[in-house]
Amino acid sequence: MKISIITVCYQSGATLRQAIESVLSQQDADIEYIVVDGGSTDGTVAMLEGYGASISKWVSEPDKGIYDAMNKGLLMATGDLVGFLHADDLLAHPRIIAQMAQAADDLKADVVYGDLVYVQKENPHQVVRYWRSCAFEPKLLKRGWMPPHPTVYVRRHLYDTMGLFDLRFRIAADYDLMLRLFRAPGLKTVYLPQVMVRMRVGGASNRSLKNIIRKSKEDYQALRKNHVGGIVALMVKNLSKVGQFFKR
After folding, report:
1. CATH number assigned to the domain comprising residue 193
2. Residues in domain Glycosyltransferase 2-like (predicted)?
3. Residues 123, 129, 135, 136: is their CA dihedral positive or negative?
4. How far is residue 161's CA from residue 123's CA, in Å, rounded to a whole number?
5. Which of 94, 102, 169, 193 fits a 20 to 30 Å CA distance from 115?
6. Number of folded domains in the chain?
7. Parallel/antiparallel/unpaired status of strands 30-37 and 189-200
8. Which tens digits make up the pLDDT trace of 162-199?
């Protein structure tokens, strides 16, 4: 089973190499690694050139934002399963992709996902929050549930039916896509109960109060667009994050 992993980046030279190395260090996994850069001027292009054929495909050109770049990566992907590793993030350990692929293969899953930890920006070994997910049930969507998107691996053909990231959303296109995906009838999902990704804090959605407010507005729009719920689901979704600071 071939796994496509997509990293999108822009001026991310400070952390990109660690992300790349965490992919290239994966063992016993057939990986197609794709990097989509937004035209960085911080040495990213030279870094990518230095990896040669170790990176399967890469492009550096202007885009319309992170979700446009992610869509480009999806269109380039040829793997059986496709997932994302952001330039600030790290795969949890060198066999996590092999374990994920084995679970998907054994259970003939359409989607595999797991847990995620938020870590300090300067020290990715220092955990700040623990996002522990759970096995999927449709009723969870009305409670604002979604899996940690950086841990989600999806059968590539599903994007042909549900579409790509909706660029009308500037911050919550991943939530909109997860709602579309998990509402699909007959979807077979597998939850891998272990940490798959170490994610540095400070992402776009929580970088400022303005972004937090915009994220909440877009989350509400995504809920309404997908006929899943409204203000109650949004409130539960936001309140559920509090427990992530205490779970281990």
Report:
1. 3.90.550.10
2. 4-131
3. negative
4. 40
5. 169
6. 1
7. unpaired
8. 999 999 999 999 999 999 999 999 999 999 999 999 99
